[in-house]
Amino acid sequence: MLTSDQFTELFFLIDEYCILFEKNMNQSLIRIPLTSAKASRNKSCGLSKSEVITLLIAFHQSDYRTLKHFYKDYVYIHLQKEFPALVSYNRFVELQKPAALPLFMFVMSHCIGECTGISFIDSTKIAVCRNQRIHQHRQFKGIAQRGHTSTGWFFGFKLHIIINDKAEIISFGLTRGNIADNNENLLIKLCKDLFGKLYGDKGYIVKDSVFEKLFLDGVQLITKIRKNMKN
Q1: Are residues 51 and 96 in the same domain?
Q2: Which of 157, 222, 154, 160 is nearest to 186 (CA)?
Q3: Which segments within the chain are labelled E, that is strand?
Q4: What is the reported pLDDT for 33?
Q5: Residue 76 belongs to what domain range?
Q6: DSSP string, 76-119
Q7: What is the rounded CA–CA span in Å between residue 93 and residue 91?
Q8: The pTM of the whole model exceeds 0.90
Q9: 164 within 8 A of 170, measured Cβ to Cβ
Q10: I need a labelling partner for 192 at 20 to 30 A (CA). Which of 5, 71, 160, 226 fits?
Q11: Is residue 86 part of a domain?
């Protein structure tokens, strides 16, 4: 668990990044005339994006298995002083959505480890709804796709992660659910700055041409083989 000083240091780093992120975003946004824009209330939500991101990263640094228990049993009880404007857990879940993009960019720029020559690759599904509700789902309609893993079919996205032998994330990507683990473009992109041996399961068995391309770039992909394959 992070100490009070570590929370302060982490928040300062994230807050400085969010200020720069918002500044660049505002410069690239298309301005809409006030006469044609819909009126909106800029109501304060209690927690800033910097605070939300800090708590989300702290959760993954903790021993708690669920965000709900971390927020209710630890944050609400022990971190009232550090976060005086705490909101309810349901409201905190809602605040994760606008903080998702700056969180993703912050992790990409500040939380990536270094390749050591021994790496491991895997993916996990991110289902956005139950399969029975696919036709009723609107939030990610046209973006999320059906995919299949060893546990069955799902509707949503896939998170692809590469870690080193120290369990540090060195590369990751988010794709639609129908993108295969051994997709050539995906692997080339994920392995762009890697070298050495890369271990994966049978889902990462690739064509000879892809294997050779990775090998020439300095990455030796090592996987198990299927029963009907020659080693």
Answers
A1: yes
A2: 160
A3: 118-127, 145-149, 152-164, 169-176, 196-200, 219-223
A4: 56
A5: 4-30+45-110
A6: HHH-TTT-TT---HHHHHHHHHHHHHHHHHHHHHHS-----SEE
A7: 5
A8: no
A9: yes
A10: 226
A11: yes
Give the other-Cβ count within 10 Å of 109's Cβ. Answer: 10
Per-residue model confidence as pLDDT tens digits over 7-54 = 888 889 999 999 988 888 777 655 545 454 454 455 556 789 999 999
- Residue that is last in its domain, among 60, 91, 110: 110
Q: Tell me how far apart the alpha carbons of residues 188 and 192 are, in angstroms, rounded to a whole number.
A: 6
Q: What is the dihedral of CA 148, 151, 157, 159, to 10 degrees?
A: -120
Cβ 188 vs Cβ 212: under 8 Å: no
Owner of token pair 């969180």: 103
Question: Under 8 Å CB-to-CB from 122, ≥6 apart: which residues?
Answer: 160, 161, 200, 201
**d(C-alpha 178, C-alpha 92), whole Å:** 30
Parallel, antiparallel or unpaired: strands 196-200 and 219-223:
parallel
